[in-house]
Every structure is written in C-alpha cells, then in structure tokens.
C-alpha cells in the first residue's frame, strides 16, 4: 500500500498516532458491542408473556395495514385475547374460531405468527384456500407487519421468498389447501388454517386438506398447535363441524349497562321498525337487554366489550384439547347495531344476499328456512287413517320406487283435490315379482271395501338400469322409468326416448327426467300446511325411521353453470334417503296423471295428450 510523505509525517506524530488508535479501538468496541447485542437478542430467553400481552407491548399497526395506525390494543377487541392466548396453554392442541367478518380474526393469526417469531421461534404452516390468496396475504398483510415492527429487526429475513418467510430459528411456510404436495412436504408444530370453509373437499386426488395439514404435526406431540379460523357456510361445512365437535364451546357474554346482567349479543334482541326507511333504521336501531329490557346503544358497546368474558357452554372432566369460540358482527367495534339492521333489510328478500348476511354478519351456517325439514314437523302430519287404508277423499293412487343394489324401496300415495296427499303404505322388497304384487294390490277404504289400485308408479333408473328398462317395458304405461335431473331445468318433468334396438318392441321406451328440486320444494312447502286440504300427510302408522328419511336432505347454495342456485343435498348426519326419493317420484307421476285437476265432487280422468306436453315426444298414454 502506498503512503505519501505528508501522510506518513502525520501518522508518526504522537498526537495523531494516539487519535488513530483511539478511533480504531472505538470502532472495534462498537462492532463487538453490536455483535454481543445481536447474540443476546438471538439467545435471549422468551419473556413470560402471553400472545395478547406481546401484541399490546410490541405490535404497531402502520398506515400500510390500517386506516387507524397506532399501537395494537387488545382492549378494543377483547374477545380476541383468550383466543390468541390459547397458544400459551400447553394442554390445548386445537383452537376453533367461528367468526363473521369485521371482528379482527385475521389479525389474531398475524399476532400469533409475530409472537412465535419474536418469542418462541419454530416452524409454522399457514394454510389458505388457494394460490392467489396465499400470495396476497403474504405480501400485502404479513410481510408489511414484519417490516414495520421493530421487534422483528435482525430476526425476519427480508430477502425471503413470498411463500416461505424465513426468520431466526424457524420459518413460515404458506400452504395451498387445493394442493396436496404443498400440504404434505413439511413437518411443523404450528399450523394456522384460515377460511377453512372455502377449502376444497379434497386436496388434489388425496384426502381432506384439513386431514393432510394435521398429519404434518404428528411428530410434535405435546407441542403441536392448530388454529382453525373461518366464516361459516353450511352446517356441513368444516368450521361448523369442528365447532360442534369441540371438547368445550364458548360464547362471549357482556354486561348490560343498566342492570349488569351478562348475556351474549344475539340478533333476536336487535330492535328496529322495519316499516321505516333504511336511513332512519340506521340511526334508530338499539339492542334490548334480555333481562331488564333496557335500550342499549352503540355508545355503550366499547365499555361492555371491555368487561366481557368468554363463558363455556359445556363442561368436561379433564383438560380440554379442542376449544371453540363463536362470534357475530354485533360484537365488532366497527359495526353499529343500525348497520346490522340495514344490511338485513337489504338482504332479506334475496336468497344469495340473505345467505351472505347469515354467514358473514351473524356468523351462522346457512340453511334455507323454507326447506329445512324437521322430524317432529313431519310426524305432526299424521292422520287417524291407518296404514294401507284409502282415505275417503282420495281419488287416485300413485307409487314411487327407489332401486338399490339389494332392495327395492317403494311407497304408495293417495291424491285428492287441492293437491291433497297421504302416504298409504311404504316398505322394501327383494324382487320385481314382490313389487308387482304390491303395486297390483287393491287397497280398501275404512269400511274394508276395495277402493283403489295404483294407477301408475315411477321406477328410478339410477341403479340396475337395464333391469329397470326391462321391467318397465313389460309393464308399459304403468311402471314409468325416471331419473333425477343433474342440471337445473325449467319444467317439472321432461320425456325422452330410450331406443333399445336389441328389443322386439318397436315403440321406444319413454324415460322421464324429473326436476327433483322442484318437487322437494313443494313437499317442504306443503309440510307447512296443517293436516287437511292441500297438506302432505302421513298415515297413522308412519314411524320415526320413515320421518328421518324424509328429513335426510337440506337445501344449500351451489354454483351450477356459473351461477349460484339453491339445491337439495343429503345431510352429513343422514343415513338413508330412499323414501324421500320415492316421495318425489310418486309426486311426479301424480302430475303426469293430472292430479292437479282433480275436483272435490267428481273423479275426473283427464288423459295425457301430446298437446299437453308442449313437445313432439310420444305421449305416456296413461289410463286409470
């Protein structure tokens, strides 16, 4: 290295030499101090604080995250405190949070991640519904928090990839619920699964993404933590099932500002005048205390929330491993009672909007109230007429048959004026010959005299299809082959020809496609009508098993053909639905026999003609 004479003279003077050495020593000491501080920071034992306390002490909400920047305060959303602090309870493994929107649920997940990075570094798997949601959450939410909070300086690696955030002592890996590969590649002690009701039923061709994710924690006994967060969809959805099956379920109770009575905030106690304009409703809505009837306003809510507490709804003898918490938007500090009322008024007449209100505002699973069948309601529709007896008002009998691998489930119904009906008989048989004998039976009236015989019956072609076709060809115009519509259809039934070239009969067999949703809707509607004219009734001997099959399905919202439609689906808890299907098929055949034209006074036999069907497909030619 070249040093000029001038610089050499300066360095050789005693004063300069001392100054240079002092500066060098100071730099070395500063560097050493910095290294020691970093080491102490890395190896510093975790503070004895809970997640909520950590958030209050270290979390800062920047302008990048919120319109209300400033220190995090759990006192604003006190209901999140216990949910987050479950991370610090060793005996708890699973935390289920059934939440609406606007209550800060996602922020609770971010606080848990932040606490782990700062206090207890380990591996984290954060699962979201799809790739786009993962990237958006990582880059627009979590990474902003990690960059803007000082407690992560020197711990979070800012050069991390978007879907794998590294930090000293661990990492946060993002998982796609739709990809089995991204759920099965890491063993981790902590998993946060957000919006689980939006997850697909299967991850690729493998099992449930919830199961795949849970498998990742098997190697961490005693240390594993799984957090399940989601707005609910249906009772069959992931979050509701987890909530229902948790060891202990909790509700958040707050005190009345007038009488001090602790109670959960429930939609039924939100009071407003529905005849007013929504601009008035927004400011005139209040909450009525269930104890003293006091009018609680939004001004009371912050103090009520701060004094609130989680109360277990059930008890267990040991220490619970799975705990569940449930909220609605009435608890949100950012949503007024008036806003809730206005949202309801805007949504109540449109099923899709109402479903969103129930899910996202009330935090409840959706069930179409007009189409949820209850066993007790069905059994209340029993008449005094015994099994196998034709009521005096009956004018025609129809039947429905649900074909299974080993049995034929059958049902026979009586029909009268005003779409009045009653189940005459039902059961199951083993052979087609047995079915012939049942359908050929002439059923008596109350006096024992022969009254009516089945005029026509529908046979489902979903199973043993060729057998059904053979059977129906041998009993043409009496046994009618049918199938349920797989896509939405306009009418109630649509015929088509089955051309069986290997058969001797030249006339093609006619197959009817049934709009099953339409008939299930009507049965559900007629079960609301008291026993009598227009009602869907049971005979006096119908049992619990029959009623359970009639209530085996519920109505849910599905995307079909790019649009949301309501459709009937089997309940998860239901065992069988055979007589429910029989009821639909029997109703459809009754329509083909012009049951709706029956009059009170006289029996009217109206033949089905080609002009009635509205198309050129051959007529069924039913005769009674």
Descriptive labels:
single chain, 624 residues, alpha/beta, 9-stranded mixed β-sheet
What is this entry, summarized?
By secondary structure, this protein is of the alpha/beta class. The protein has 20 helices and 26 strands.
Description:
- This protein has 624 residues and is α/β, with parallel strands linked by helices.
- The protein is 32% helix and 23% strand.
- It contains 20 helices and 26 strands.
- The strands form five sheets. Strands 3, 4, 5, 6, 7, 8, 9, 10, 14 and 15 form a ten-stranded mixed β-sheet that branches. Strands 16, 17, 18, 19, 20, 21, 22, 23 and 24 form a nine-stranded mixed β-sheet that branches.
- Strand 1 and strand 2 (70-71) form a beta hairpin.
- Helix 12 (337-347) runs antiparallel to helix 13 (351-361) and helix 17 (516-526) packs across helix 19 (578-592).
- The model is unreliable at 6-12 and 602-624 (pLDDT under 50).
Main beta sheet strand tally, sense and closure: 10 strands, mixed
The N- and C-terminal alpha carbons lie at a distance of 117 Å
Helix content: 25-40%
- CA-atom Rg in angstroms: 34 Å
Mean pLDDT equals 85
Q: Report strand %.
A: 15-25%
Total DSSP helices: 20
Q: Give the overall shape, derived from the CA principal axes.
A: elongated
Uncertain segments are 6-12, 602-624
Structural class: alpha/beta
Q: How many strands in all?
A: 26
């Amino acid at each position: 290295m070249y040093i000029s004479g001038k610089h050499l003279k300066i360095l050789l003077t005693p004063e300069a030499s001392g100054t240079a050495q002092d500066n060098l020593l100071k730099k070395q000491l500063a560097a050493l101090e910095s290294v020691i501080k970093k080491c102490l920071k890395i190896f510093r034992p975790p503070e004895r604080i809970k997640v909520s306390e950590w958030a209050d002490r270290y979390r800062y909400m920047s302008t990048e995250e919120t319109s209300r920047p400033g220190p995090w305060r759990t006192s604003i959303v006190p209901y999140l405190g216990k949910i987050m602090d479950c991370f610090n309870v060793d005996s708890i493994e699973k935390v289920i949070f059934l939440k609406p929107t606007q209550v800060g649920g996602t922020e609770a997940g971010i606080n848990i991640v932040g606490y782990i990075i700062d206090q207890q570094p380990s591996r984290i798997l954060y699962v979201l519904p799809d790739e786009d949601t993962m990237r958006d959450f990582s880059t627009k939410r979590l990474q902003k928090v990690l960059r803007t909070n000082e407690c992560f300086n020197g711990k979070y690696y800012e050069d991390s990839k978007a879907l794998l955030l590294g930090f000293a002592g661990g990492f946060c890996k993002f998982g796609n619920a739709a990809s089995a590969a991204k759920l099965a590649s890491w063993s981790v002690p902590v998993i946060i699964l957000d919006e689980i009701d939006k997850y697909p039923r299967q991850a690729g061709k493998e099992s449930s993404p919830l199961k795949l994710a849970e498998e990742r924690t098997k190697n961490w006994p005693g240390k594993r933590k799984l957090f399940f967060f989601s707005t609910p969809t249906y009772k069959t959805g992931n979050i509701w099932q987890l909530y229902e099956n948790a060891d202990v379920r909790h509700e958040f109770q707050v005190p009345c500002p007038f009488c001090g009575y602790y109670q959960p905030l429930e939609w039924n106690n939100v009071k407003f005048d529905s005849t007013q304009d929504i601009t008035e409703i927004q400011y005139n809505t209040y909450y009525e205390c269930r104890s003293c009837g006091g009018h609680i306003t939004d001004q009371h809510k912050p103090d009520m929330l701060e004094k609130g507490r989680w109360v277990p709804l059930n008890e267990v003898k040991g220490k619970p491993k799975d705990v569940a918490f449930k909220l609605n938007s009435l608890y949100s500090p950012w949503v007024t009672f008036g806003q809730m009322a206005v949202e309801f008024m805007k949504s109540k007449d449109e099923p899709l909007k109402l479903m969103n209100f129930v899910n996202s505002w009330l935090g409840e699973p959706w069930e179409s109230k007009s189409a949820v069948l209850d066993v007790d309601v069905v059994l209340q529709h029993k008449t005094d007429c015994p099994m196998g007896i034709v009521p005096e008002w009956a004018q025609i009998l129809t039947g429905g048959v649900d074909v299974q691998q080993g049995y034929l489930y059958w049902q026979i119904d009586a029909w009268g004026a005003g779409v009045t009906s009653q189940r005459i008989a039902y059961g199951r048989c083993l052979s087609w010959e047995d079915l012939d004998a049942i359908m050929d039976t002439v059923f008596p009236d109350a006096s024992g005299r022969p009254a009516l015989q089945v005029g026509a019956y529908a046979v489902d072609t979903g199973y043993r299809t060729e057998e059904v076709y053979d059977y129906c060809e041998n009993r043409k115009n009496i046994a009618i082959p049918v199938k349920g519509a797989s896509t939405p259809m306009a009418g109630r039934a649509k015929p088509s020809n089955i051309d069986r070239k290997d058969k001797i009969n030249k006339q093609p067999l006619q197959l009817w496609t049934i709009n099953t949703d339409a008939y299930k809707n009507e049965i559900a509607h007629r079960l609301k009508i008291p026993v009598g004219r227009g009602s869907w009734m049971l005979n006096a001997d119908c049992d619990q098993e029959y009623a359970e099959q009639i209530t085996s399905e519920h109505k849910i919202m599905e995307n079909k053909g790019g649009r949301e439609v309501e459709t009937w689906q089997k309940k998860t808890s239901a065992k069988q639905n055979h007589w429910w299907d029989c009821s639909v098929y029997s109703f459809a055949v009754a329509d083909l026999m012009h049951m709706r034209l029956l009059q009170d006074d006289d029996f009217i036999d109206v033949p089905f003609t080609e002009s009635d069907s509205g198309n050129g497909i051959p007529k069924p030619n039913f005769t009674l």
